[in-house]
Amino acid sequence: MLWLALGAIQTGVVAGGVALIYLLLDGIVRGDGPWFFLNLLGATFYPRRAFSLVFSRATLSGLALHVAVSGVAGLLFAILLIPYRAKPLRSLWLGAFLGGVWYYLVFRFFWARVDPAIVLYQSFPGVFLAHLVFGFCMGLYPRFVARLPGTADSFHLPESSG
User: Model pTM?
Assistant: First the structure.
């Protein structure tokens, strides 16, 4: 069970990294700079540095917060994906759906109260799509964890022929 939980956290951090790459590119395309989203997250700890376009302590604290939240979200997603472990395609789509739900629960409700600058200044389509990307990547969790030693029997995934 410990390996499954650690695999879930690792998958969450990797999925969060993929979503973060999308957000960094989105910031560049919008002209805000690559660190804008991380600086908004870092404003939770360093409020005066929220709108800085340079890499700073606020950026590092935003990155640390993003990694921690991604790991916790990975664990929660993995728990919800357990019934779909033998259906990899469904787990991908359910993961994307859960990413959208995660956006509304965390971004629209939690961050709106803790750090409203994130909700006010981060563009809707960009951050919503990043949550969908995160969820889609989390949908790969059953395939990822099936490759861990000693877990293939508990996941009952079909063996691929390649």
Answer: 0.80
The more confidently predicted of residues 17 and 91 is: 17
**What angle (nearest 5°) sits at the alpha carbon of residue 131, between those of residues 24 and 159?**
110
Domain count, the chain: 1
Residue 161: inside a domain, yes or no?
no
Residue 31 belongs to some domain of the structure: yes
Q: How many CB atoms lie within 10 A of CB 124?
A: 11
- pLDDT-based confidence at 121, cuts 50/70/90? confident
Q: Across the chain, what does the average pLDDT equal?
A: 82
Is 160 within the bounds of a domain? no
**Amino acid (one-letter) located at 149:** P
Q: What is the mean pLDDT of residues 32-39?
A: 86
Is 159 inside any structural domain?
Answer: no
- Please give the single-letter amino acid code of residue 10: Q
Instruction: Please report, as a single letter, which amino acid is at residue 160.
Output: S
Q: Phi, psi at residue 93, to the nearest 5°?
A: -70, -35
Residue keyed to tokens 């991604």: 70
| Alpha helix positions (H), the chain | 2-30, 36-42, 57-81, 88-102, 111-114, 116-121, 124-138, 141-146, 152-155
pLDDT band for position 151 (50/70/90)?
low
Residue ranges making up the domain that contains 129:
2-154
